[in-house]
């Protein structure tokens, strides 16, 4: 079982759950600190910790072969957390994914591999993972799941074109996708992004 930091209500008491996924070089505790700014007061919050604080060794658009083993292991780690929530009686449409940077990429990749109706996905600077987008890797329908992707329009790590490609593919899979690209060079989480998701996803 992966190391998981928890916050908020217990799974037994909560009717909603959030999986928060940290970025490269960060920790579960660091992404949990974001929960203080998001409307998650009635949720169980679970944050898995990546081995060595990295979900996969290379960039999210690097060679598929180089990232394959670690990426599959990390996707399984998120799947274990997701199944723990389902086993506690919380349905998928009340489960949310929140990730930053590498964690945002992993959030989108995990959700799209087996798409289903979720409470929502918040990808703070991220896109689908792979050297090239391969639509055949993904299956299922999001059935109207709201997806937010926010980023810089010139982020060094996550190109805007891959964000838009990812958004288009997710939209075709039935997600209701909102992309906000900010005219700054920062690799960060912006107050405007938090304000938007609080008004539109974490109601």
From TrEMBL:
Any one GO MF term held by the record is: hydrolase activity
Q: Which residues form the signal peptide?
A: none
Classification via Gene3D superfamilies: alpha/beta hydrolase
Q: Which family does it belong to?
A: Belongs to the AB hydrolase superfamily. AB hydrolase 2 family.
For the keyword Hydrolase, the answer is: yes
The keyword Metal-binding is assigned to this record = no
Protein source organism: Algoriphagus sanaruensis
Q: Which PANTHER family match?
A: LYSOPHOSPHOLIPASE-LIKE PROTEIN 1, LYSOPHOSPHOLIPASE-RELATED
The segment(s) forming the Phospholipase/carboxylesterase/thioesterase domain are 12-201
Arranged from A to Z, the UniProt key words for this protein are: Hydrolase
Task: Name one matching Pfam family.
Answer: Abhydrolase_2
**Protein name (database record):** Phospholipase
- Annotated coiled-coil positions are none
């Amino acid at each position: 079982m992966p190391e998981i930091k928890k916050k908020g209500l217990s799974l037994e008491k909560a009717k909603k759950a959030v999986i928060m996924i940290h970025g490269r070089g960060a920790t579960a505790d660091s992404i949990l600190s974001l929960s203080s700014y998001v409307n998650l007061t009635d949720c169980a919050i679970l944050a898995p910790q990546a081995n060595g604080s990295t979900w996969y060794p290379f960039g999210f658009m690097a060679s598929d072969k180089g990232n394959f083993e670690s990426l599959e292991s990390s996707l399984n780690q998120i799947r274990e957390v997701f199944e723990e929530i389902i086993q506690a009686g919380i349905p998928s449409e009340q489960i949310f994914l929140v990730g930053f940077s590498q964690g945002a990429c992993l959030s989108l990749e995990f959700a799209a591999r087996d798409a289903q109706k979720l409470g929502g996905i918040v990808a703070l600077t991220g896109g689908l993972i792979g050297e090239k987008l391969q639509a055949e890797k993904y299956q299922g329908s999001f059935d109207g799941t709201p997806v937010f992707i926010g980023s810089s329009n010139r982020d060094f790590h996550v190109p805007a074109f891959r964000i838009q490609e990812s958004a288009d593919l997710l939209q075709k899979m039935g997600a209701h996708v909102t992309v906000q690209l900010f005219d700054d060079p920062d690799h960060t989480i912006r107050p405007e992004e938090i304000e938007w998701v609080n008004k539109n996803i974490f109601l």
